[in-house]
Amino acid sequence: MIADGLVFLGTSHFGHRLDAATALAGLDAVGSAVAVVAPVHPHRGDLAAANAAVLAAAEQSAGRLVPLCRVDPWEGTDAVAELGRAVRAGARGLFLHPAEEHFRINDSRVRPLLEAAAELAVPVVVAAGYHLLAEPLQLGAAAGWTPDNPFVLTNGGQFNISGLAQFDAELALGHPNVHVHTTGMYREDFLERVVATFGPERLVFATAAPLFTMAYERSRVELAHFSDAERALVLGGNTARIFNLEDHA
Amino acid sequence: MPDAGLTAGDEDEEGETTVIIDMHMHIEEVASLGWKMSADDCIRAMDAAGVDRAAVMTLTDLPGLNPQGLELIADACASHPGRLLGFLRLNPAHLETSKQLLGQAVTELGFAGLKLHPVSTLQHPGGAATIALIRLAGELGVPTLFHCGDEPLSTPLSIAEAAAACPDSTIILGHMGGYFHVDEAIDVAEQHPNLILETSAMPYPDKIRTAVERIGAARVVFGSDGPVSSPSLERQKVVMAGLDEPDTDLVLGGNAAVLLGLS
Question: Do A152 and A182 contact (CB within 8 A), yes or no?
Fold first, then answer.
């Protein structure tokens, strides 16, 4: 079972868009059975409405779209309440985007949200690698607040075309609950080292479409030097385990 | 997933052989980073990707951590004649030494280019020393390959300062802007005809097509940043850009052959 660990749905304030039908067609084209889906940051920032739209799309997808709830930590207790409401409505995890909602992931204001997610037993996915707001060690510090709850970082936990952020990303992976997406990670040896050093359970295939290209991101995993068992975990087994996708395991 | 279906020396419909050239690979062992990249690693990755030739360079700058950097690249190229072409990675802060080394490398050892990484040298691309070195490269008839990404000192707009100051030198933007500066790399390439975009590591196949549409296929070159970044994957990125066959051939090797003096 191939599972895309993250796809964005909706029309973003920042210019990109993907609807559910197009997402499902894209998954079909590259052979992905399911995708974890998160709302984009919509124009005027109504995340509750965006969550409702993603939940509705997931409801109509025959289980192929696994919805996340996106909230803004600056909303305080309202954000915690929205997370609870969305999870009761079917959301399978919490998505946080420090750059687009403009908060520092290890700011103490974020901690109640992460603790609420752990209490609700839903994993946390974080848009990673943003200078000042979501640097690898900041992400590791936040992951440490809820050490028993999966904490999944996009794009290898970093954005750096010199390869120099991977050392901090590996330190973040020192937290056993940290997992990293393959998306956009240009260093094949980093992906292979995550598997060799931290175990194949810690690396998760994702495309972050429409920001990245589904077919190209799939090739990134296919061409890396993994055993068949490791690749099976990376391509879908880990997402099935993290999000408890019994129907697809 | 199907593989790329590509092999070295593919023939096109007219039976002409397409030479695939990777403009950006590395050789060096850097203990402090735990990075080990050998000439044999490059050759293995090239063979797996169907790449005929590659420009190779160190991971550190001369003068600097590895005093044998020039010899390392020269020996690698000599050990794999016709496969590897040397680029000399220099620190413009040591200008007179760098100029002497570049002249020696190009005129005596056949090096094909200059590599500059402002993040490691801490030299602004528009600084006087960097400009002097780029101009010398131009006078010697070889291009300058910049690391061009998202970090300060390496952004497209920073390197555009050098392009404007060195109109007679060819400057290649390695990684064509990284993750967040790709549109700016295309913008500055539109403004400066001496800029070439190199495709390695940046993760957007469609941006290659955009670049070709805006600045022409003759000014975009394939690179991998291998061997630790997969030349096979990086070659697929160019194929996925969906260019027509002549333009794909130019990007994958035709343009590099001209820049490296091979055609």
Answer: no
Average pLDDT, chain B: 94
Name every chain A residue with its beta carbon within 8 A of the beta carbon of B232.
223
A189–B228 CB contact, under 8 Å: yes
Task: Give the range of the structural domain holding residue B77, as residue numbers without chain letter.
Answer: 21-259
* Sequence-separated (6 or more) residues with CB below 8 Å from residue B72: B27, B28, B58, B66
What is the predicted ipTM?
Answer: 0.96
Rounded distance between C-alpha atoms, residue B173 and residue B185, angstroms: 8
Of the candidates A104, A103, A154, A108, the one whose C-alpha atom is nearest the C-alpha of residue A128 is A154
Q: Compare CB distances from A186 to B119, B203, B236 and report the shortest one's residue.
A: B203
Q: Across-strand partners of A180?
A: A153, A203
| pLDDT beneath 70, residues of chain A | 247-249
Phi-psi category of residue A140: left, alpha or beta, with phi > 0 → left and psi -120 to 50 → alpha: alpha
Q: Which two tokens stand for residue B176?
A: 């064509």
Q: Let me know if residue B106 belongs to a domain.
A: yes
Residues of chain B contacting A, Cβ within 8 Å: 1, 33, 35, 117, 119, 147, 149-151, 175, 178-180, 200-206, 225, 228-230, 232-233, 236-237, 240
**How would CATH label the architecture of A3-248?**
Alpha-Beta Barrel (3.20)
Two tokens, residue A188: 């094949």
Rounded Cα gap, residues A145 and A124, in angstroms: 12
C-alpha distance from B230 to closest chain A C-alpha (Å): 6
CATH code assigned at B120? 3.20.20.140
Residue B8 lies in a domain: no
Q: How many of the other CB atoms lie within 10 Å of CB of A30? A: 18
In a domain, B14, yes or no: no
Reported as a single tens digit per residue, the pLDDT across B53-102 is 999 999 999 999 999 999 999 999 999 999 999 999 999 999 999 999 99
Q: Do A142 and A106 form a contact (C-beta atoms < 8 A)?
A: yes
CB contact under 8 A, A186 and B240: no
Question: Among partner residues A189, A216, A222, which is closest to B205 by beta-carbon distance?
Answer: A216
Integer angstrom CA distances of residue B84 from A56, B25, B69, B87, B120 = 55, 9, 15, 10, 24
Number of domains within chain B: 1
Q: Beta-carbon neighbour count of residue A81 at 10 Å?
A: 14
Evaluate whether residue B198 is within a structural domain: yes
What count of CB pairs under 8 Å joins A to B? 69
